[in-house]
């Protein structure tokens, strides 16, 4: 009796089939045809061996079959997953006339307060004067101004008043704090700084420092404060200050009806 043994057959290993496989196969067939035609033409010139070698189709790279499985990519499965991801993605729509607001946090900004204007009431005339008297008073004005420059005798010995008297004639300049030009609080703070005393910048702030004293206890060198203005007391109902625009630092009579006297040590 003859015994035959039939062995199982396995499908030969192949590369994965992809949409590019047909394109690659067509290109390979075309190159093979071109090679054969070239070999026939070259045979008559004795170059058949070299042309055949040059036109031989490329040999496919060996397939790594050690694992017994071939790497394959299922494109249809990937396409289905991509479609599912797009369908599951939320759709965002925005109206054409939608308005957007941007919240802005307010940054703290500290602004140096501007010096207040220094008002000074104009003297009220209680009697009518003739034109002759007005001309006479205008001619006497320069002499009165020269006399006003003199330091009152009651201020002798006051360091503050002596320093302040150096700047008689300096013009009033709004916001001025130097001998090039002073406003009222710029003048007092500059004079006090010469003796090592620091005063706030504005007249309203200077009115809140030091110790308030009565008028009969006031001494030359004390501050004289009224709302919107600050000056230095010179004794004998006199003061020295930077009055207002158009004027200069000068000694003059205290014109305020009820000023506040402040002593700063």
Automatic annotation (TrEMBL):
Keyword set, alphabetical order: Hydrolase, Protease, Thiol protease
Disordered: region residues: 111-149
Domain of life: Bacteria
Coiled coil: none
Molecular-function annotations in GO: cysteine-type peptidase activity
InterPro entries: NLP_P60_dom, Papain-like_cys_pep_sf, Peptidase_C40
Keyword Protease recorded: yes
Low complexity bias (residue ranges): 124-149
Domain NlpC/P60: from-to ranges: 154-265
Hydrolase recorded as keyword: yes
GO annotation, biological process: proteolysis
Residues spanning the signal sequence: none
Record family assignment: Belongs to the peptidase C40 family.
Record-given protein name: C40 family peptidase
Organism of origin: Cellulosimicrobium sp. ES-005
